[in-house]
Specification:
alpha+beta, 4-stranded antiparallel sheet, 3 helices
Length: 90
């Protein structure tokens, strides 16, 4: 299944407890689009300023459809993703 990266800028820096949207995103996942994992960009205070989410999905539209059900999570963009590991270059 193709991979996608969803980029979520936070309107203001937040803690993990303040954002608390992971369960809502998972609850709206489908067989066509599901969240795999995320990385959080932190500021100097340790608060989240941007979240980068890896998705497996049939297409970008399927990811958009799931994220539309979580309007409190802003979306900067959704992009095709390829994962390259350092082990690929041994």
């Amino acid at each position: 299944m193709p991979k996608f990266l969803a980029v979520h800028p936070m309107p203001k820096p937040v803690t993990v407890k303040e954002i608390a949207l992971g369960k809502k995103v998972k609850a709206n996942a489908t067989l066509e689009a599901y969240w795999v994992r995320s990385w959080a960009q932190l500021n100097e205070e340790g608060k989240i300023v941007k979240i980068l989410c890896e998705w497996n999905a049939v297409d970008i539209g399927a990811v958009r459809k799931v994220l539309a059900k979580v309007p409190e999570l802003p979306v900067e963009g959704i992009y095709p993703l390829m994962i390259v590991d350092s082990e690929d270059f041994r």
